[in-house]
Amino acid sequence: MILIDYSAIAVSTIVAQNMAVEEDLVRHMILNNIRLYTKKYRPVFGQTVICVDAAHNWRRDVFPEYKFKRKDSREKSKLDWVELYRIIDMVLQELRDFTNYPIVKVDRCEADDVIGELARYTHQDETNFFGDYDPVMIISGDKDFAQLQVMDNVKQYSNMTKKMIEDKTPSLNLVEMILRGDTSDGVPNCLSANDCFATGTRQTTLSAKKLKVLMEDPKAYGDDIYNNILRNKRMIDLAETPEDLKLEIINTFIEERKTNAAVKDKSALLEYLISKRCRLLIECIEDF
Q1: What sign does the dihedral 171-173-246-137 (CA atoms) show?
Q2: How confident is the model at residue 56 (pLDDT cuts 50, 70, 90)?
Q3: Is the pTM of this model over 0.90?
C-alpha cells in the first residue's frame, strides 16, 4: 500500500512553498502529487490510499492542549485558511467522484491514526485481506511515522525534503520522543505541566542524566512524572489510538476498497480532467 497523508501533500506543501491559494493551482498540485507518488511506487507497493484528517480529534478530548499553538499560528498567518480548506475539501470530493483510490476519513481520527492502523494491520490481518506483510510506503514528512518502522515492511518518503526517512532504532527513539514531548504538537516534556505551552510557562529542563534514568525506569521520579509520561504516550504513540476507532478505520478501508474496486474507469477521470482544464495531467492519465 501507498499511504498518502492528504494534509502533507496539500496543506503542508502550500505552506512550505508559500503558494498562492488559487483553486486551479491547488487542485493541480494535489492531483499531480498523487499521480507522481502512485506512478513511482505502485510497481512495488501497490494500491494508493488517501488518508485524511477528520474533525473532533480524540486527542483533544484526552489532552485539550494538544496542538494548542496551531490556531494561533494560523490567525497570525496571511494565508487564506478558509479558502484553502474549501479547495482541499472540494478536491477530496472530486477524488471520491472520479478516481478509484480508497479514501479513509474517520471522525475523531487524524491521518496519523489511519496510517498507523493500516500499516500495523499488514502485520496482523488473519483474513489476508491486506496480504501477508505487504510492503507499505508512507508519503509524509511527519517524523511521528518513523515509529512505524519497527515493522520491517514499512518505509517512509518525505514529500517536503524529497528524501526517505529512515530510523534504525524506532522503538528506542519513540521512547525518547515520549519523554521529550513534541513542541510542534503542544506536547510538553515529561517533567512539565499540561498547560505550560498554553500559559507561556517555560518547560522544566529534561537533562541528559534524567532522560537516561527515565528511559530505564519511567517510574524513577515518582507518580506525577510517570503520569506525564503516560500523557505523552497517549499523544505520540500511534498504537494508542482507541480500539473502537482502530476498528472503524479498518472497516472504512475495507468498504472503500470494495466500493471503489471497479466502479470507475479512466473515462470518468478523463472527463473530469478535461472539465477542469488540467491539460498536463490529461497527457499522463495512465499514471493515476
Answers
A1: negative
A2: very high
A3: yes
